User: Fold this.
Amino acid sequence: MTQLQLTHDEYRLFTITPDDGSAIGNVSARARLGFPKNRYGRAKDGLLAKHLILRAPGGGGAIKRAPAADESDIEMDSNRGIAIVTPPVAESNLYRPILETMRGAWAVDRGFEPIAVEDVANLGSRKTGGKWTRPDLVAVGVTTFDFVPDLLFDVITFEVKPADQVNVLAVYEALAHRRSATHAFVALHIPAVLSDSLKKGVQQVVATAAEHGIGVISFAEPSDYETWEVLLDAVRVSSPPEQVDAFVRRNLSLEGQDRVSDAVKKLRRGVPLTPAADVVAS
Assistant:
């Protein structure tokens, strides 16, 4: 079965079309999107051609959602007989499910024993070192290996971008806070229906990230690790210890700082960490 693909404009138009089967006028829809007539017309014609909307009566014309074609893998609401596409997700709403995945499947897959994994994007007026020095998410922990006895203490930062912000600016934001970390990733939300239309933007992000050692992760569903893909792994850097120490102090919660401090003391004594007890969920 071929994955149905939408352009970004088609996606935005579809998500504002009422999911109860009622109609929305073309004038109202165009005003909500802020599209000029030609741009709106292309998006509408694309959805009509893909049988996701139907024309409806109304002054100036109207549209409504159509029953999904059998071969489409857009989600189908069988009770109402209409196609469903998940609406755009605000960046802040991506943080919690990403954190849960990072603490679980991502950490296991990476050989990473997390100590503190936190949302640090919303620290209010707390001083964090200047523009772009505050990441969205931070994972502090220890990386282990199958055939090497060494443990690596890692501070990994994440710059999260929703589907409508997939551009190379994210790389430079990640690069700014990598100065006080060991790794930095850009995490891009790429819904399945937008994977084709966002492909060029993703490629540009990966190409730019490769020049600077920044990692790139894409995901369709933040809570489903099976939809995550590491497009480019982050290069580990040795940031000055005093900068890393200051970064943890400025950005982590007090509870997170305490857990990191306790874990460092254990590591100095050669005491193994117990991830289930040591991870802080913020």
